[in-house]
């Protein structure tokens, strides 16, 4: 990693540094080589680090949850980073994740067949039916 989040105390790669920069209220990103680091920031990084923060922010990642790697697309990595640091979905062991409540509706990004661009699609995830349905038009009502 050539970058660090001096507000989270973690070292990150170039690709993830851009995602972290898009959530400045959570993560303040600096280059390890090019930026000036204050003494308190260096101390914070030394006291925390990736392993300690992983224990904190990934304490309760469900076994079925896919953790993206550097090889995955930016959309997957961004959702992981936001779930982990912004929404703190995995920080409290024993607490149900909000999408485990039986049914979840929202928006996902689906790659278009013709031009390869990602497009917003409404989805409905149903535990009862064991299905994930997504709709081309957002205003389609579920059955």
Can you give a write-up of this model?
- InterPro entries: Arf-GAP_dual-PH_domain (IPR052589), ARFGAP/RecO (IPR037278), ArfGAP_dom (IPR001164), ArfGAP_dom_sf (IPR038508), PH-like_dom_sf (IPR011993).
- Keywords: Metal-binding, Zinc, Zinc-finger.
- The chain has helices at 14-21, 39-47, 49-57, 74-86, and strands spanning 3-5, 10-12, 29-31, 103-111, 118-126, 131-135.
- By secondary structure, it is α+β, with helices and mostly antiparallel strands.
- It has a three-stranded antiparallel β-sheet with strand order 2-1-3.
- A hairpin with a 4-residue loop joins strand 5 and strand 6.
- The model has no long low-confidence stretch (mean pLDDT 85).
